[in-house]
Amino acid sequence: MDCSSGVDGDQLWLLNCLNATLDTNQEIRSSAEQSLRQASGHPGFGVALAKVTINRELPLGLRQISFCLSILLFLKKLSDTYPFFNDV
């Protein structure tokens, strides 16, 4: 299955990073994780993750990783905005 089906050029980088998080090579995996951490601070990152999550043309594993990252990003934004959630 072609991972670039139904995605625009901007999402191709994200798909490559998500794929790299599954690599058995620790250096590649760590680099991808760091890139995703840095990208998470940019506007539109959450929307890009959501688009990957709902794109049924992509492999399920990539969609699941994207969904998990979306949840983590949401929880981080929530705790940054409302610090009392950190106590829960």
What attributes does this structure have?
4 helices, mainly alpha, single chain, globular, 88 residues
What's the structural blueprint in terms of helices and strands?
Layout: H1 9-20, H2 26-39, H3 45-54, H4 60-81
Give a short summary of the structure:
The protein has 88 residues and is mainly alpha-helical. It is 66% helix and 0% strand. The chain has four helices and no strands.
How does this model look, in words?
There is one protein chain. The protein is an all-alpha fold. It is built from four helices and no strands. It has helices at residues 9-20, 26-39, 45-54, 60-81. Helix 1 crosses helix 2. The chain is globular.
Radius of gyration: 14 Å
Q: Give the overall average pLDDT.
A: 87
Compute the separation of the termini in Å: 42 Å
Q: What order do the helices and strands follow?
A: HHHH
- Strand residue content: under 5%
Unreliable segments of 5+ consecutive residues: none
State the shape.
globular
Question: Which structural class best describes the helix and strand composition?
Answer: mainly alpha
Number of helices: 4
Q: What proportion of the residues is helical, as a percent range? A: 55-70%
Most strands sheet: none
What is the tally of beta strands? 0
